[in-house]
Specification:
Two copies of one chain form a homodimer.
Chain A lengths: L1 H29 L3 E6 L6 H11 L6 E7 L4 H6 L5 E5 L8 H11 L6 E5 L16 E7 L6 H4 L1 H5 L3 E5 L11 H11 L4 E4 L1 E2 L2 E2 L1 H16 L9
Parallel strand pairs in A: 1-4, 1-5, 2-3, 2-4, 5-6, 6-7
Antiparallel strand pairs in A: 8-9
């Protein structure tokens, strides 16, 4: 009896969170702000990619970043030179949830932003289960993690619209086959877009940034960025 | 009222799990099996380190591995050439819990093992909160993840007895300062042991394996491997 009651409460809370996230998604599309949720393992290079992406998009779109971490505000400090950035600190929690994102967006006070990135906690598992009100979900896979990760952490890849392979500058030194990683990931999600990038030196950002701009065009036309899973 | 009841149930379950894990730890110490819980981000090189460690310890200790993954049995297949290995598949869960470890140990049917490694799910957050009945907890940090990770994911480092820096062969190509990472980690846990290793080629395993053998001596003498946090 106790258990049944608990499940009911939990469902109500989750349903409410889903509705709030969906409403945020609608509102952000109406005002022309593309929201991008960025997932990866710790140290795959989310902050470096977003800094380089903000620089690359400088003349094409106004960009801001809500950056999640368990502790420290180091990433927001790093990003501040490239784009308006606000740190979301979870104090231990392994993923971001929508209410913190909404508070962050309100605190950012930047309604004119055209692309809002949400840099999630470095964790290839838990963040995949939470809708942050994003239009588009991205998963980074660094070449140093190995090309077997899509099969081993399937949900992050199944729920993402695109995979950004990061640290391609290290390909000569690591046993990573980009074609194998892409094939593995597309067994999990056949329509996954794949981009090969590096930030030391910066390379491969043009197709990735074109993809982002195309996603913004889609939401302006009232189309979703792709199937939500 | 419902909430209070739920918290009570939850506490009972957790207390029971803690007791079972503590009992397993005592039993394994009595029979001379050191249990080592290995944490890291996805792709930091846990499987490669354990394969190389099993080879290196070949003449000194009988080693086995319980290897956790969300999906696939690729890691157990990789390890099988180096040591008895058994895959624990969580089917989605972001960390291992004690009951699955106990089942794995029973299924392994290898009571003569002197060091049992538990390769946790690749996740630098959630596994830090679960006692698997280990004597010794290890966290791997790969040089490609960046030296800022101890400060950003403190619990994994605070609850570990040693940090193994992996992929030191890539140090010439990445912005990682081993001394800075060690200092950062020791601000979180002052008595943390630190080992610098690589597996391509194999290097730095001697001090790491000496540490493991010394930990086994400790449990044989009835001493803990260090403070539990």
């Amino acid at each position: 009896m106790t258990t049944v009651r608990v499940i009911t409460v939990e469902r109500d809370v989750q349903a409410q969170a889903r509705e709030s996230a969906a409403e945020f998604r609608r509102k952000m599309a109406e005002q022309g702000t593309l929201v991008v949720n960025v997932l990866s393992s710790p140290g795959a290079g989310k902050t470096s990619l977003l800094a380089a992406t903000a620089d690359h998009l400088h003349a094409r779109a106004r960009v801001a970043v809500l950056v999640g971490d368990i502790a420290t505000d180091r990433d927001a400090q790093r990003l501040a030179a490239h784009a308006p950035a606000l740190q979301l600190t979870t104090g231990g929690a392994c993923h971001l949830e929508f209410p913190l994102v909404e508070q962050g967006w309100d605190a950012l006070k930047a309604p004119e932003i055209e692309i809002l990135f949400i840099e999630n906690i470095g964790n290839l598992v838990c963040p995949a289960s939470f809708d942050l009100g994003e239009h588009c979900r991205i998963v980074l896979l660094s070449t140093t993690e190995g090309d077997d990760k899509p099969a081993k952490y399937p949900k992050a890849f199944r729920t993402s619209h695109a995979m950004v392979v990061s640290k391609c500058d290290l390909l000569p030194y690591v046993p990573f086959e980009p074609t194998r990683a892409a094939a593995d990931a597309r067994r999990i999600r056949p329509d996954l877009e794949v981009f090969e990038t590096s930030t030391r030196p910066v390379a491969g950002l043009e197709p990735w940034c074109d993809f982002l701009m195309a996603q913004r065009e889609r939401i302006l036309r009232g189309e979703p960025c792709g199937q939500r899973r």
